[in-house]
Amino acid sequence: MPELARKVLASYQPQADQKAFFDAVFRLQLVAGQYAEAQKSIASLRLRSKDTFADLLFKQYELFAEARLRQRQNGASFGTNFKPRLTTLFAGLDDRRAVAISTAFSSRDGIIGLQNDLNNHLSTAKKDSLTLSEAIALCSSYNTLQVYKQIEAIALPVVKADEERRFIRDDSVLIKTKDGATLSAVVVRKRGITAPQPTALLFFIYSNTDRSLAEAKYAAARGYVGIVADARGKRLSPDPVAPYEHEAKDVNSVIDWIVKQPWSNGKVGMYGGSYSGFAQWAATKYLHPALKTIVPYVAAIPGQGLPMENNVFLNANYQWAFYVTNNKYVDNEVNNDNQRWRRMRNQWYQTGAAYSKIDSIDGTPNPWLQRWLKHPDYDAFWQGMVPYGKEFANITIPVLSITGYYDDGQISALHYVTEHFKHKPNADHYLIIGPYDHFGAQQGGLPVLREYNVDPVALIDTKEITFNWLNYVLKGGQKPALLKDRINYEVMGANAWQHAPSIEKMSNTSLILYLTDQKDGDNYRLTRQKPKIPRALKQEVDLADRTTWNNDYYPDPIVRKTLNRSNGLFFISDPFDQEVSINGLFSGELKAIINKKDMDIGVVLYEVTPQGEFFELSYYLGRASYARDASHRNLLKPGVMETIPFSKTRLVSRQLRKGSRLLVVLNIDKNPFAQINYGTGKDVSQETIRDAGSPLTIEWFTDSFIKIPVQENPARF
């Protein structure tokens, strides 16, 4: 492997992305035994980083290289040279920096995980030649394994001793709820502090003691009592797991316990993403007086994002119930068995079985799915889990929400925002949103997202902003600088943040585009003129046909060279004669006559760039019979004109160049990734391919329109 690394270094040329270049180079140099050169490359990498603790980046590799160099000079063992340097490092760090670097000296999935990763790379390398990128990836994997095999066992006691010097920790706290259940929690406090402190609370279902301790230490290093509480039935809780169903009261039981402790000053702030975001909103359903603020990232709403979106049950997260309920922690093996879930989806699709039988295709009963399928409406079952309707008016505490344009659950996160402002117009609620996916938003973004090069200014530090916000609310600190107004959004393509008092004020006009039956190349035209006499475009979808899929809506990659035009209707606008920004939530109204009682609709919005690429901006997926009311199904009448409004799309901000056009793709959802609505009017979960009958025929009328929020004459950034 050292010889391969030296050969790669000899041919590897500087890249436009200097950070990626030096990241690869220092790893190659370590494998090649060029330790002094590796230290220089790490220094170059740090100079290009905007990380809060840039000087600590890759410290484990730097100390490894230093110990190897000293080993060459003095002939002593690696451990003899490495341990004192590590001990000296931690002795000179303050709490924040020590916590930030502490996890760098242990591998996330253990040495076995690193060995498995290397084996995977080696298995793909069994051929006559490797590409440069394959060789770099192989050497990088080898380097990571070799470094951690040397440092991990030495570092563990050093890091633990340093932690005990700084913090008081208890990883086995048990908390009783009012209904007699038991929850477990981790508590970390700064050693030597006698005055009561505010609490930073994270509540989650993904139980992992090491992660909980790391989260709690992070908070303790910033002047809080750090607490991570596990959902009912997880970790040390003896009770059964029940995802979503008890958080509204269980979180408040934890807060009750907190405020009774001598170290509590009676103020609690919550933070965290996804399920933890949901748990925060659940707690506000019965708002505890000690809960002073929440910071939910990509917050889930059961019944609004997953397991169903706009009343369509999705397969994207089918395995999640097993992942969180199979044991007291999480079942990574099941969650990561992508081949199993792909096979299940495809077999279910091909057989045409009822959606309620999909777990029989897999072979393992899924009682949680079956429970959820009994509630296809957004009914009292779902409404009881988080604030609903006028209950949002009772949420008087400051809120900071964070989500992304490409967060799969964005409609959930934004539902909380829009409902809060709807029922409490003066809500003290801020939103940060940018080009992030579900996991990226919880960190602050990635330089490259699904092959799209993210604007540099969009990259933030979510955790740093979170604790600055907690300081602002709980300690009277400064409000995070990014929060210049209620809605704070990064304009893709402009490399700039903009700010608005509301989602509606992100734009200064609405572009209403009507469908037409006039051809423009391979597309139909979109026009600003409402037709005097609407005409119809016909679409036919054979719901029993399993040789094709309909509705390719998912934005991966975000930018495409070509689109699948085998099905659906494509509508294109005229080119823009100046720069404009698409800012906000697109919506629309579809008018159609169909021969069945229901259908699932997909609408995808693209920018067609002057270069002819397709940049996906947003999309909608929803069931027509729930278009007006997610809590009550109103079936369509065959042969009768129906008006179908839609609005729960993905919020986006993107600056379009002069010459860009908008493309709207209208389709019926029929694929392995969601329920198939056969249009009989029965419970969709019970329908089978035998219910398909004659093909679904739709007449889409040209007084249907798409409404797009536009900022005309955008400021030059």
UniProtKB/TrEMBL annotation:
InterPro entries: AB_hydrolase_fold, CocE/Ser_esterase, Galactose-bd-like_sf, Xaa-Pro-like_dom, Xaa-Pro_dipept_C. The keyword Hydrolase applies. GO terms for molecular function: dipeptidyl-peptidase activity. It comes from the Bacteria. The keyword Heme does not apply. Keywords: Hydrolase. Residues 467-699 form the Xaa-Pro dipeptidyl-peptidase C-terminal domain. NCBIfam families: CocE_NonD. This is CocE/NonD family hydrolase.
